[in-house]
Amino acid sequence: MISIQTIKRIKSLQQKKFREEEHCFVAETPKIVEEILNSSAYSVETVYGLKAWIDANWKRFARHTLEEVSPKELERISGLQTPNQVLAVVKKNDSLLDLGTIFSDMCLMLDDIRDPGNLGTILRIADWFGIKHVVCSNESVEYTNPKCIQASMGSFLRVSVYYGDLAQFLSDKKTDTPIYGTFMEGESIYQTELNPKACIVIGNEAHGISKPLEPLITKKIHIPSFSNEKNHAESLNASVATAILCSEFKRR
Q1: Are 181 and 220 within 8 A, CB to CB?
Q2: Which residues contact 19 (CB under 8 A, 6 or more apart)?
Q3: How far apart are CA 28 and CA 105, in angstroms?
Q4: Angstrom distance (rounded) from CA 99 to CA 90
Q5: CA 215, CA 181: separation in Å to the nearest integer?
Q6: Overall pTM > 0.85
Q7: Which of 159, 146, 202 shows the shortest CA–CA distance to 41?
Q8: What is the pLDDT of residues 184-211, one digit of tens each?
Q9: To pair with 109 at 20 to 30 A between CA atoms, which of 2, 120, 141, 227?
Q10: CA-wise closest residue to 164 among 116, 205, 112
Q11: Domains identified in the chain and CATH numbers
């Protein structure tokens, strides 16, 4: 049985303020928790699992602190609408920014991405296309947001995520890596030359790329619509646009 104090602490980690104070975050579902436990990227504080999960996994993860909880207790500490079998409290691991490494291959820069589902999906896309580095503006949602962790489906373990001033990062870069940005007036990605070793800037879901970053973009690109309807969709979801861009860059 877990204490009321422990339940309150775990529930508090659903909020950014307490994640920052505790330097911890919550991960749920067997797939994500087991990937974390099998990875050396993060240190796990405690794993809370139902009896069936503990019985099936204690030998594999005996070096970790495993605590059995009842379905009712798991429901109380879970952030999911339908709690699964296991929840882990994980210690945050802040990545240090190495501009040389980041700009040596394709990377993504996310300018004010606010939706945790979008960020998590973008991390999953980066993982799929072999992109190892994602740099987020300070205004972007944190990748340890529970909804982001769930949407990433474990990809946050294989993609390094950094936060900072994007304009400063781009100004400080000492390579000739091209900086591509998505704009409505940009050139079609299907007609322009694309360099696979590039930095792709993805703008905010509603407002696109911010004004301070515009002068630092070396190539404006656009995903054209092929709809014949007059009132077709105005734009694409940020994560959908990222997937299309990554696919086209890698295809070349």
Answers
A1: yes
A2: 13, 25, 92, 142, 144
A3: 32
A4: 27
A5: 11
A6: yes
A7: 159
A8: 888 999 999 898 889 999 999 888 899 9
A9: 227
A10: 112
A11: 4-91 (3.30.1330.30), 99-251 (3.40.1280.10)
